[in-house]
Amino acid sequence: MSPTGTRVRDAAIELFAERGFHGTGIRDLAERAGLSSATLYHYMGTKEDLLVSIMTESLGRLVEAGERLTTADPLTRIIGLVELHVLTHAMRRLETRVVDDEMRSLSPARRKAVVALRDRYEALWQDAIDAGVADGVFHVRAPRVARLALLEMCGGIARWYTPDGPIPLEDLALRYAEMALGVLGVAGPPPPLDVDTVRRTRALVDEIW
Amino acid sequence: MSPTGTRVRDAAIELFAERGFHGTGIRDLAERAGLSSATLYHYMGTKEDLLVSIMTESLGRLVEAGERLTTADPLTRIIGLVELHVLTHAMRRLETRVVDDEMRSLSPARRKAVVALRDRYEALWQDAIDAGVADGVFHVRAPRVARLALLEMCGGIARWYTPDGPIPLEDLALRYAEMALGVLGVAGPPPPLDVDTVRRTRALVDEIW
Amino acid sequence: MSPTGTRVRDAAIELFAERGFHGTGIRDLAERAGLSSATLYHYMGTKEDLLVSIMTESLGRLVEAGERLTTADPLTRIIGLVELHVLTHAMRRLETRVVDDEMRSLSPARRKAVVALRDRYEALWQDAIDAGVADGVFHVRAPRVARLALLEMCGGIARWYTPDGPIPLEDLALRYAEMALGVLGVAGPPPPLDVDTVRRTRALVDEIW
Amino acid sequence: MSPTGTRVRDAAIELFAERGFHGTGIRDLAERAGLSSATLYHYMGTKEDLLVSIMTESLGRLVEAGERLTTADPLTRIIGLVELHVLTHAMRRLETRVVDDEMRSLSPARRKAVVALRDRYEALWQDAIDAGVADGVFHVRAPRVARLALLEMCGGIARWYTPDGPIPLEDLALRYAEMALGVLGVAGPPPPLDVDTVRRTRALVDEIW
DNA sequence: AATGAATGAGGCTTCATTCAT
DNA sequence: TATGAATGAAGCCTCATTCAT
Which positions on chain E have an atom < 7 Å from some protein CB? Predict the structure, then answer.
């Protein structure tokens, strides 16, 4: 993408995240990107097209990364997914917030494809949870509820994370992994829960973003 | 409040929850309430006043209910808070979504008071968690992160709950309580985790709403 | 219709006739009607709705008047139709110009109904012509072409007529009737071609408009 | 003119005729001509310049052809003018429609010259009609009205003609000539009304266009 | 010869709000 | 209590045009 195109995109991510899609005007976008509002339209279709492309790209990357983790055993998988989710929601907090919050702003026609992508991603979580329950390593009585709870819990970091906080991001990822295992009823801190795993997940994130 | 006033309020809750504050027009509100848009202004101040009053009332009740739970020991308290949060977010899912999602739509001037109320509520959680950690009954390495994670996890039910689902609400509250204790590193299912406690919490909700 | 509604309508008729639909801006309409452009929208739907309603009403009246003439013999009928067409295009020259010129400005969806109405009206002409040919009173070798030529010829008066001109309108109607009979190959001026007939047709116009 | 210049011109004729001047955007023109909208400006001045040049050239040719017919007697002249008008409006229906319909789209400054050209052309008609009336070969009571009616009638062919129709163009020209003589009150089919005359007029058209 | 980038002005329409009745 | 009428500001988007490359 051209540098200006990137500026438009970045402006949209910032503003949609801060003020919401409907709270962001075309003039706001133009001002943030340093363009006239007419020029904006050289770099996007409609405002909704811009939103869709942001969501699609972000979710697409998340799906791609998530699918790389599906080969491992359920425990390793869920740890990887938690780390992936937490890291991306911290490192890309603006665009992930847009994905998580602005689904409702899409027109039905455009929503379909985005929801399908999100469902693919959530299915990775559900599969890992179900497999862990089947293996007896997770103990939850309502696996679907657990998935929803975990996604909400881990994604929540995008609502408050800043790199200036007292806890380094890799440690935060570990804390979330511990909490997630608690949610899933895993007894005691299992071996894969160390910083090296987090770093491997982070490398994955860096590769795909 | 007059019956018509209630209709306006309910319409606003529904629409703000579904489409967001900026996605909802005065005309939408009027139509949903069965009034002309001019008449609307007999029952509200500005659109933002309406939002503020919805948020203030909802949060006010949550705070009031939460403060009734502060006498118990940390474990009982956190269980009560989780149940309270889950029950209200399920039973009043629209208005709680408005509270959770539309803070950013408030002008700075109006936001202050609402944020203060929310902070009071969240402090109840933080106090309970910190007390539990001090007592050695909770085992978390980042108590502030745990609070944020728990609130996000429990409030998330408002994004998907419907009374038609397969799991009765009281059971859901129990599941969330179990997951919360997992997050907090509590070992084994403790005594207060039964349906009677949920029912007591529900009675509290019914009393205050 | 409310007085203001009528002002909006009249402004639209004037401007659409003078500058065309696409050459008329919403601000032009508002200014001509003495309103703000926002207020305009209390009295119309979209700009296209306004155009459609003008065309539909005008054509509707023309059809209604035309259908009152279908009982007579072909010669009397065609004379009546010519007089009707000429009188309306002179007396209502602006709205008839809009009807005749702005069909192409309608979106396909809206065009359908208007074209159907116009076709109904033109069928009255074709039927009269065909009947006259069958009766041997008209002598034309291409009746469809004659219809098109006559309509164009008679409607053309809307492009130049002004009440201040040297020839009174009723005389103009007679001149057009004479020319029309010439087009249709009728030999010699037939009896019904006098001012009394024109006055009867004019009474019909006055009744229906 | 360069081939590309011709493409631009042809695109403009098509679109101005179909959608009107104000209904045609620069982008539409560019797309139809297969160029970018910036490149368009290498082949034209402003959009209005393009319109003016189309109208001027078309009218100029009409005037030139019309003036070749002024030597004959009134009857032959009017027949020639009718044939010329009908043939050009059928063979060049798009550009003649632009001439006939888009005069109002010209700014006053540019309109003057075009109107002058049109007036020169219409004077040819008026002169022929007046001469015929003076000679006693035409019988019309309002010669100016007859001119307006004839021009409208004959030019109308541009609104519906297609080469695929059931009647060959030369026959159409004859039909229009017959109708025109009817309008002018000429008794009986006079000698010059045959296909050979039409062919001569057609040759004139082919020479000048 | 050709175009991507740029823009001020304006396109149509809706916004939240007020006020006289 | 209720609303039709009214509006300045703003909504998203396209306009015709210019210019550096």
Answer: 1-20
Asked if the Cβ–Cβ distance from D153 to C152 is below 8 Å, we say: yes
The nucleotide whose C1' lies nearest the CA of B4 is F1
Q: What is the pLDDT of residues D26-38, one digit of tens each?
A: 999 999 999 999 9
Distance A95 CA to E6 C1' (A): 28
Look at residue C203 in the predicted model and tell me its pLDDT: 98
pLDDT of C189 above 80? no
A141–B175 C-beta distance less than 8 A: yes
Å from C159 to nearest chain D CA?
9
Burial class (CB in 10 A: 0-12, 13-18, 19+), C96: buried
Contacts of B121-124 with CB under 8 Å at 24 or more apart are B121/B59, B121/B62, B121/B63, B121/B66, B122/B147, B122/B151, B124/B63, B124/B66, B124/B67, B124/B69, B124/B70, B124/B81
pLDDT in tens, A138-171: 999 999 999 999 999 999 999 999 999 999 999 9
Residue partners of D174: CB distance under 8 A and separation at least 6 = D193, D194, D195, D198
> CA D100, D106, D108, D111 torsion: positive or negative?
negative
Find, in chain B, the residue whose alpha carbon is nearest to that of A18.
Answer: B104
pLDDT tens, position by position, D103-134: 999 999 999 999 999 999 999 999 999 999 99
Which residue has its C-alpha nearest to nucleotide F6's C1'? C39
Closest nucleotide to C3, Cα to C1': F5
Q: Which of B102, B153, B171 to mutate to test the interface with A (most CBs of A within 10 A)?
A: B153
Name the residue ranges covered by the structural domains of chain D: 1-44, 47-208
Q: Do A155 and B152 touch (CB under 8 A)?
A: yes
Of the pLDDT bands very low, low, confident and very high (cuts 50, 70, 90), residue D71 is confident
Percent of chain B's residues with pLDDT above 70 = 98
- 3-state SS of D22-34 is CCCCHHHHHHHHC
Q: Which CATH class is domain D47-208?
A: mainly alpha
Average pLDDT over residues C148-174: 98
CATH superfamily of C46-208: Tetracycline Repressor, domain 2 (1.10.357.10)
Q: Do A104 and B185 touch (CB under 8 A)?
A: no
Alpha carbon of D103: minimum distance to chain C alpha carbons (Å):
10
* Domain B1-44 fold: Arc Repressor Mutant, subunit A (1.10.10)
